Amino acid sequence: MLRQLIECVPNFSEGRDMKIIKQITDAIESVEGVKLLDVDPGKATNRTVVTFVGEPEPVIQAAFLGIKKAAELIDMSKHHGEHPRMGATDVCPLVPVANITMEEVAQWAHKLGELAGSQLDIPFYMYENAASSPERRNLANVRAGEYEGLPAKLSKPEWKPDYGPAKFNPKSGATAISARDFLIAYNVNLNTTSVRRANSVAFDIRENGRVKRDGDLVTSKVLTDADGTPLREPGLLKACKAIGWFIEEYGVAQISMNLTNIKITPLHRAFEATTERAVARGLRVTGSELVGLVPKSVLLDAGRYFLEKQRRSVGVSEEELIHIAVRTMGLDELAPFDPKKKVIEYLLEGENPNPLISMDLRAFANLTASESVAPGGGSVSAYVGALGISLGTMVANLSAHRRIWDDRWEEFSEVADRGQQLKDELLRLVDEDTRSYNGIIDAVRLPKGTDAEKATRKQAIQDATKYAIEVPFRVMEVCAASFEVIRDMAERGNPNSASDAGVGGLCARAAIHGAYLNVQINCADVEDKEFVQTKLEAGKKLIEQADAAEAQIMEIVLKNIQ
């Protein structure tokens, strides 16, 4: 069964005393199976956003311990900060990350509410996808009145907590728990100190917009419907909540946003809309900041968007795409921006998930030439294939940047983008091939004393060996797909780079032949003859196709260079 992962992003009402924050995060990290990804304190907001991830059961236990520790250490009667809040643990959202539905996450949110409500003297409200009623779905409604308004709110039957006592806890306040989609907390910096002007931009962009009036702001009346509800003029961005505030720490006003559905309003769209409205009001955006973590796709999409605006190829490395996104949106204006510390996927990978492709060329060659049995022919084949498609991608990018082909940049950009995806997959397989070999070694080292242990060991060896076949076979498949890009660029790419396309074709063919040797040698140890026959026959077809494709590419290249 695939491992279910959820993310928990509690916001604690303490952003200045690092000793308190450390005690809370220590409580969270005390639960085995939970990985703390980020701790983001804010002095002006007096609030810390903590992010951790794991399987549902340990995440719920860690969240409970964090809420409990915050209740012990934080006194809300003495709390002051720029951000709306109502409790020591203000909000505790759960977010699906992998192999789990939103409905399942909502069930876990209620388990957390039930656990905390039964053991802590704190009122708990469920919101968003875990809400117990439509009125409680919106966090703004749940938190209306903030901490100071809790005594009155808790006296109303309609605001009875979902869990915990219906009485005011002056020290801990109340906590809101949810199951929600990934939310991006994003602040855009303005060249002003005026909160009023920052709010005017916030009202322009946020989904809720501003109330309608029958004239100017000073003398006009608010327009209402037949029921007396104020009419509103919606803002530019769906799934966006925004307010303006002044951050004394930096001496600037900001638009503080929550982007609640990045499929509807991605990060780059929020930045562009804010910039547009700021300029219209005589202001300028100077930079921005991300609070907490983001999925890698958010920055990659932003990088592609800004490159397309420049009419440049988007078929570049993910490192360059992220660099373009960071520089364009000024994500490093207020503090250094390290993608390794802000992107969820990078944090989950750990320090060095792919040691081979992290090496420099000399180190990789030296290790290959040493007495170590890995990396071997499989990893080298994958790397040679990566070099081959990299050359084809290079030709596409050079073609996109060719001055006389400015009107064709999009067509070459699409080719380069396909090439980058194939390159990244082959680079992944460089380390995966060595991992598959290590998997066989691990299986061989399993105990073999009892009959049951022997059977378990034998099956583990067979499974690991099959996987050691699947990896080089995948190398063959990806390299076969790379021929389309390389052949295309040999035919209609920049003629000055025809030889590069030719070398790319030679590398792709060599990689397929080399990977097939690894398929063959491992097939000899697999008892599942049907599996072996299928792989060998499919491999032979890929070899034949590779030979034909490489010959065709070389014929095209030689015509262009002779």
Provide an overview of this structure.
It is built from 17 helices and 13 strands. It has 562 residues and is an alpha+beta fold. The protein folds into 3 domains: 5-179, 2-Layer Sandwich (Formiminotransferase-cyclodeaminase, Chain B, domain 1); 184-349, Alpha-Beta Plaits; 361-561, Four Helix Bundle (Hemerythrin (Met), subunit A). Strands 1, 2, 3, 4, 5, 6 and 7 form a 7-stranded mixed beta sheet that branches. A hairpin with a 4-residue loop joins strand 3 (34-42) and strand 4. Helix 6 (195-205) crosses helix 7, helix 8 crosses helix 9 (318-329) and helix 13 (377-400) packs antiparallel against helix 16 (498-523). It starts with a strand and ends with a helix.
**What is the domain total for the residues?**
3
C-alpha-based Rg, rounded = 29 Å
- Strand segment tally: 13
Uncertain parts: none
CATH top level of the largest domain is Mainly Alpha
Largest sheet: 7 strands, mixed
**Individual helix count:** 17
Gross morphology is globular
Secondary-structure-based class equals alpha+beta
Straight-line N-to-C gap? 57 Å
From the 3D structure, determine the CATH topology of the largest domain.
Four Helix Bundle (Hemerythrin (Met), subunit A)
